[in-house]
Amino acid sequence: MDITFMVALVIALALFFDFTNGFHDTANAMATPIATGAIKPKTAVTLAALLNLVGAFLSTEVAKTVSGGIIREGSGTSPITPEIIFAGLMGAILWNMITWLKGLPSSSSHALFGGLIGAAIVGIGFNSINLESLLQKVILPAIFAPLIAGLVAYVCTRLAYALTSRHDPETGSKLTQKRGGFRTGQIFTSSLVALAHGTNDAQKTMGIITLVLIAAGTQAPGTGPQFWVIAACALAIAIGTYSGGWRIIRTMGSGLTEVKPAQGFAAETSTASAILASSHLGFALSTTQVASGSVIGSGMGRKGTTVRWNMVGKIAIGWLFTLPAAGIVGALTALLVNTGVVGVLIAAIAGTGAVLFMFFYSRKSAVGHHNAVEVEEAGQAVRFAKKKAMARARAEAKAKAKAEASAKPNARPQAETEPQSQAPADADATNPKETQR
User: For the chain, what is the radius of gyration of the CA atoms?
Assistant: First the structure.
């Protein structure tokens, strides 16, 4: 097969993977602010898309790890070919689609590494894998990053509630405390997570495209991604992020624990800190694992909140199976593409068919911005809307009373005065001030 056509095919597939990475990981930044009512769903995904786009231009350290760290590049004893990279991407994409269909926040990063490792082992051999780099920059961060993020979120949540609690000076009893300021803060912390996500996850596809260019001999080994590669990957992940990924937003926003503004603020702060630190160090971190660990930690940090451990268990199983499952698909695809042009075409057609099947199957139980997460009813936006509705109801009652009074000139104009005195009382009785823990 013509190497130029194969390279173009792999680049197109890599950009599609970047797209799936975007909608797969939107929940990392925006699930909790959507759940607490801090940001409207469509506004949230639009903001996340823009910040992912910007973040992709801020760093290339992770891209260098992917292109020159996990898989050995260049010619020599273990050259990697565009066909092998094609097989690895196929494994990553199919696993991303499966977990998206199930609403599981699995790691797109580990799916990518698993697919590449499986394809490289079958197509080249074990000597193509840089085990030291794999251990230091993938395996160890996968183990410790969600634990550290969860611990930080737990501590931040306890501090947030401790510092904002109030007590009656006479009785010493705890007073109900409003924490609406945390909801406003979530706008900034979730934006920081989206920006950090762009600095980490978009880099992985940049690394893949750089790797295939090196394998094709059009770029020198050891060099970083070219500008057009950075721009294309930034745009692809931004478009994917804008498409939503609502199934996983549902799991992250309400499937793990009930999220309040102070919890969301703490979770997003710890997530952003971990991702930005890993991007600076060149760690190809799983942002999904970090975000999930942060949400769980924040749930444990708030008294009275129950963490849904059955859902945590399902997510953990997905984490454990991501590397080997994507690796198996990548390995099987590598066996197929090694047979030649026909094998590549069969793999491409079969992969496309599987993706289309899962997409159309998902339409049977569609999840969108209207039903992804049950928004926190104590949200400021909701409260303001209720106030407007109350004012409208009072105005309508007053107008009705005036109309009745004018229709009965001899009658005592009691109807006009009663709604004015009763409406506020009725409103307070039916809509007491909602508070947040």
Answer: 26
pLDDT of residue 390: 56
Nearest Cα neighbor of 288 from 39, 4, 23, 28 is: 28
- CA distances in angstroms from 345 to 9, 31, 167, 348, 378, listed in the order given: 11, 38, 70, 5, 54
Q: Are the C-beta atoms of 85 and 215 separated by less than 8 Å?
A: yes
pLDDT digits (tens, 9 = 90+) for 322-351: 889 999 999 999 999 988 889 999 999 999
Q: How far apart are CA 154 and CA 314, in angstroms?
A: 21
Based on the number of CB atoms within 10 Å of its own CB, is 41 exposed (0-12), middle (13-18) or buried (19 or more)? buried
What six digits make up the tokens of 344? Answer: 């590549």
- The C-alpha atoms of residue 277 and residue 336 are separated, in whole angstroms, by 39
Q: Give 401-432 pLDDT, tens digit per residue.
A: 777 777 665 545 444 444 444 444 444 444 44
Whole-prediction pTM value?
A: 0.70
DSSP assignment string, 412-425: --HHHHHHHHHHHH
CA angle 129, 215, 237 (to 5 degrees): 85
How confident is the model over 96-124, as pLDDT tens digits?
888 888 877 777 888 888 898 999 898 88
Closest among 80, 86, 140 to 115, alpha carbons compared: 86
Distance set, CA 200 to CA 12, 173, 193 (Å): 20, 46, 11
Q: What is the pLDDT of residues 128-160, one digit of tens each?
A: 787 887 887 778 878 888 888 889 888 888 888
**CA angle, 252 as apex, 383 and 153 as ends, to 5°?**
85
Task: Give residue 217's region: left, alpha or beta (phi > 0; psi -120 to 50).
Answer: left
CB 405 within 8 A of CB 413: yes
φ/ψ of 271, rounded to 5, equals -65, -50
Q: Which amino acid is at 116?
A: L
CB 268 within 8 A of CB 294: yes
CB 48 within 8 A of CB 311: no
- Other CB atoms within 10 Å distance of the CB of residue 134: 17
> Quick one: residue 218, left, alpha or beta (phi over 0 = left, psi -120 to 50 = alpha)?
alpha
Q: Report DSSP state, residue 258.
A: -
3-state secondary structure 19-84: HHHHHHHHHHHHHHHHHCCCCCHHHHHHHHHHHHHHHCCCCCHHHHHHHHHHECCCCCCCCCCHHH
